[in-house]
């Protein structure tokens, strides 16, 4: 399908290109012919109900969920040959580090610099500056020495964004960053994402609803039953869909649903959370 990817010479290739992507779990289709192009520098929300395929699409774009058929390119390179993973900042739905062992906020954020350093080398002044900048950006500089256990769920989510920021990528992929987060931290997260947009970063967010991100998102892609059913301006919220300041906290997705983030195995999470993984 490589002939379907045509780049104009001199143009910056899209951050992600997805052509006729199909994914099936145990023979059950989860993505069914998805086409999607995300230009570099765009802030995009992928929306849809549980089981719609939105989290599977994200994992497929990162090379974790294998395609049954179709093709994906990342920054112009076929996914199977893409090696510049330091350019991708992945933000999982919940903190998986620091829960079982003591870890400070700064230590978690500093782990985002691993890919930028040579193996076994000690942190440099540049590393420390990147960590300081990341903490400042998410508004947690004053909590740097605190244990992550002491933080609320929303603050922990900001730590995860800071960890991604510390690696200084140009592309961010965030999995349900607003899930289970109170209104104050939702607004803080929205402010951080707005700053990323102002910097020209590419930001892809998997969301249940827009909430306070409504004014930040440039484009919304809505999936239903593995198909793209909307691609354009953000759809109007309905029912309980959040407006800015909405305090409803959603439970985590059904772990038995094929689209659930909880179907990601520990090995997959390690691959995603450690930049430069194979």
Task: Please give the structural blueprint.
Elements: E1 16-25, E2 28-38, E3 43-47, H1 54-61, E4 69-74, E5 77-78, E6 88-91, H2 105-110, H3 125-137, H4 153-166, E7 171-175, H5 183-199, E8 202-207, E9 219-224, E10 227-232, H6 266-273
Parallel strand pairs: 3-8, 3-9, 6-7, 7-8
Antiparallel strand pairs: 1-2, 1-4, 4-5, 9-10
Helix pairs in contact: 3-4, 4-5
H/E series: EEEHEEEHHHEHEEEH
Strand content: 15-25%
Q: Supply Rg.
A: 18 Å
Overall mean pLDDT stands at 81
Oligomer: single chain
Low-confidence stretches: 1-9, 238-278
Q: How far is the N terminus from the C terminus?
A: 24 Å
Question: What does it look like?
Answer:
This protein is an alpha/beta fold and 278 residues long. The protein has six helices and ten strands. It has a six-stranded mixed beta sheet, with helices on both faces. Helix 3 packs antiparallel against helix 4 and helix 4 runs parallel beside helix 5. The longest helix has 17 residues. 41% of the residues are buried.
Question: Quick recap of the structure?
Answer:
With 278 residues, this protein is α/β, with parallel strands linked by helices. 24% of the residues lie in helices and 22% in strands. Strands 6-7-8-3-9-10 form a 6-stranded mixed β-sheet, with helices on both faces. The chain has a 4-stranded antiparallel β-sheet with strand order 2-1-4-5, covered by helices on one side.
């Amino acid at each position: 399908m490589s002939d379907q990817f045509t780049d104009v010479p001199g143009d910056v290739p899209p951050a992600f290109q997805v052509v006729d992507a199909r994914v099936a779990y145990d023979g059950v289709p989860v993505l069914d012919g998805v086409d999607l192009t995300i230009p570099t520098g765009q802030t995009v929300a992928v929306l849809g109900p549980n089981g719609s395929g939105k989290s599977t699409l994200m994992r497929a774009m990162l090379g974790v969920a294998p395609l049954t058929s179709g093709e994906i390119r990342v920054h112009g390179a076929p996914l199977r040959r893409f090696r510049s993973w330091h350019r991708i900042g992945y933000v999982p739905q919940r903190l998986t580090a620091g829960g079982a062992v003591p870890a400070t906020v700064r230590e978690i954020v500093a782990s985002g610099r691993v890919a930028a350093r040579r193996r076994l080398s000690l942190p440099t002044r540049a590393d420390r500056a990147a960590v300081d900048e990341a903490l400042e950006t998410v508004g947690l500089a004053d909590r740097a020495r605190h244990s992550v256990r002491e933080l609320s769920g929303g603050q922990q989510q900001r730590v995860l964004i800071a960890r991604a920021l510390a690696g200084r990528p140009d592309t961010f992929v965030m999995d349900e960053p607003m899930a289970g987060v109170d209104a104050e931290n939702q607004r803080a997260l929205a402010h951080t994402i707005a700053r990323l947009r102002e910097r020209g970063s590419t930001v892809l967010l998997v969301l249940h609803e827009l909430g306070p991100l409504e004014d930040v998102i440039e484009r919304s892609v809505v999936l239903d039953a593995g198909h793209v059913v909307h691609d354009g301006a953000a759809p109007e919220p309905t029912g309980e869909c959040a407006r800015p300041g909405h305090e409803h906290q959603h439970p985590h997705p059904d772990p038995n649903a094929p689209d659930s983030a909880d179907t990601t195995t520990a090995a997959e999470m390690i691959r995603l959370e450690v930049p430069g993984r194979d």
